[in-house]
Amino acid sequence: MKQIAVIGSGTMGNGIAHTFAQAGFTVKLIDISEKSLEKGMATIAANLDRMVTKGSITEEDKHKTISNIITYTDIKDGVVGCDLVVEAATENITLKMNIFKQLSDICDHNVILASNTSSISITQIGAQVVHPERVIGMHFMNPVPIMKLVEIIRGYSTSDEVTKIIMDLSVKLGKTPTEVNDYPGFVANRILMP
Ligand SMILES: NC(=O)c1ccc[n+]([C@@H]2O[C@H](COP(=O)([O-])OP(=O)(O)OC[C@H]3O[C@@H](n4cnc5c(N)ncnc54)[C@H](O)[C@@H]3O)[C@@H](O)[C@H]2O)c1
Predict the structure, then answer these.
(1) What are the tens digits of pLDDT across the range 23-78?
(2) Which CATH number do you get for residue 136?
(3) Measured by CB atoms within 10 angstroms of the end CB, which terminus of the chain is less buried, N or C?
(4) How far is the CA of 146 from the centre of ligand 1 (A)?
(5) For the chain, what is the domain count?
(6) Domain residue limits at 127
(7) 139 an active-site residue?
(8) What is the pLDDT of residue 91?
(9) Nearest Cα to 142, choosing from 24, 36, 43, 68?
């Protein structure tokens, strides 16, 4: 895994992009809104500045992290050459279904397609693509650069191989991945929301 596409540059998307870029991956950050991309990059820079002030990273680490991120407004351009796509767009079922249908058409069949959804079934999302075995939930917590937990959700068709790759990758990011069932709210929100 070298290149990661992140779809959506809002609260979660910019945190996910920051986390992958800081771990040395090339990140293609995609959003339909140029304004959102600008805001997302400004948030990443501000969060990195805070880390430099605290002494947890150096000024050089900050520049390297920012230079690892490229922004796009066109999904087709953004996903070229990526090994993994992490979708973190607005929590809307129709919107996410359309994004995954599009990803199914434009990505090679071996690209892993992950969703950061908080509440939509990964099985249902997987049903939108030709190869549902490569679709998985990768549910990061907010703020992503700080929070360790990542819920890893298998859909009905998600393969063992894809699950292992994403579990291992999460560890490489310095996170604590936990496999959870594809139930409404998964585990964290199922407990948190009531
Ligand atoms: N906010 C949280 O605490 C939190 C925590 C865990 C998971 N999530 C999940 O993460 C996802 C994103 O949530 P958020 O809080 O970052 O939302 P947000 O509203 O901050 O950001 C969503 C971004 O998606 C962009 N977008 C919308 N349609 C798009 C498209 N077709 N292509 C590309 N970009 C598009 C919007 O322009 C916006 O910048 C949701 O699925 C949400 O459930 C949120």
Answers:
(1) 999 999 999 999 999 999 999 999 999 999 999 999 999 999 999 999 999 999 99
(2) 3.40.50.720
(3) C
(4) 18
(5) 1
(6) 3-192
(7) yes
(8) 97
(9) 43
Beta-sheet strand order (sheet of 176-180): 69-72, 26-30, 3-7, 84-87, 112-115, 135-140, 149-154, 176-180
CB count, 10 Å around CB of 66?
A: 15
Active site residue 189: yes
Rounded to the nearest angstrom, the distance between the alpha carbon of 17 and the centre of ligand 1 is: 13
Task: Answer yes or no: is the C-beta of 78 below 6 A from any ligand 1 atom.
Answer: no
Type of residue found at 82: C
Residue burial 120-133, b: 16+ Cβ < 10 Å; e: rest: bbbbbbbebbebbb
Q: Are 10 and 18 in contact (CB under 8 A)?
A: no
Q: Is 47 a catalytic residue?
A: no
Cα–Cα distance measured from residue 162 to residue 177, given in angstroms and rounded to the nearest whole number:
14
Q: Active site includes 151?
A: yes
Atom number, ligand 1, closest to the C-alpha of residue 37:
39
Residue 95 tokens read as: 């919107």
Encode pLDDT of 108-160 as tens digits: 999 999 999 999 999 999 999 999 999 999 999 999 999 999 999 999 999 99
Which of 12, 18, 19, 30 is the pocket-test mutation for ligand 1 (most atoms within 8 Å of CB)? 12
Work out the pLDDT band at 85, boundaries 50, 70, 90: very high
Q: Which residues contact 67 (CB under 8 A, 6 or more apart)?
A: none
